[in-house]
Amino acid sequence: MYKLTKLAADGTDLPNDATGHLAVRLDHSLLAQPIIWTAHRSPERLTWAEAKKWAEKLDINGWSWRLPTVEEAFLLPDRSRTEYPLVDPAFFPDCDGEWIWTSTEDLVPPSGCAWGVYLYSGDSGRDDQDGDDRVRAVRAGQ
Fold it and tell me: What count of other Cβ atoms lies within 10 Å of the Cβ of residue 46?
């Protein structure tokens, strides 16, 4: 099962046709509990260190945020979609299929890499932490 739900500022569900939402809940059959995502990405491409700081400084809906793990981010693309990007723009309006950073560092040499996920096709890969990618944060504690 893969289901997205738009969330109001108080965390309650919004209808699928609602606009102006800032957060989205992802329910997935592989998850013990849902993941709450920011509906919008970082306005700029950031290094991995900048991405971590950007996510942690967010104050959307008064919640705490963080970078997703690679496993969490890998579940965001809906692989049952028949068109690209695999992330539904009705829920993530600024998604153009960007690469997003995850909190997962790659410990295999060369060191200094972290994992990212490509929201266009659902691929993942490692990138130098000095590279620049977008950020979509998840709610801390989820």
Answer: 19
What are the tokens at 116?
């990212």
CATH code of the domain occupying 40-139: 3.10.100
Give the pTM: 0.93
Tens of pLDDT, residue by residue over 53-110, are 999 999 999 999 999 999 999 999 999 999 999 999 999 999 988 999 999 999 887 6
Residues 6+ away with beta carbon under 8 Å from 139:
23, 35, 36, 37, 63, 64, 65, 66
Q: Which residues contact 124 (CB under 8 A, 6 or more apart)?
A: 70, 73, 74, 115, 116, 117, 118
Per domain, the residue ranges of the chain are: 40-139
The percentage of residues in the chain with a pLDDT greater than 70, rounded to a whole number, is 98
Pinpoint the alpha helices (H) of the chain: 48-57, 70-74
Q: Which of 68, 60, 65 is CA-nearest to residue 20?
A: 60
Sheet holding 113-118, edge to edge: 99-106, 113-118, 124-128
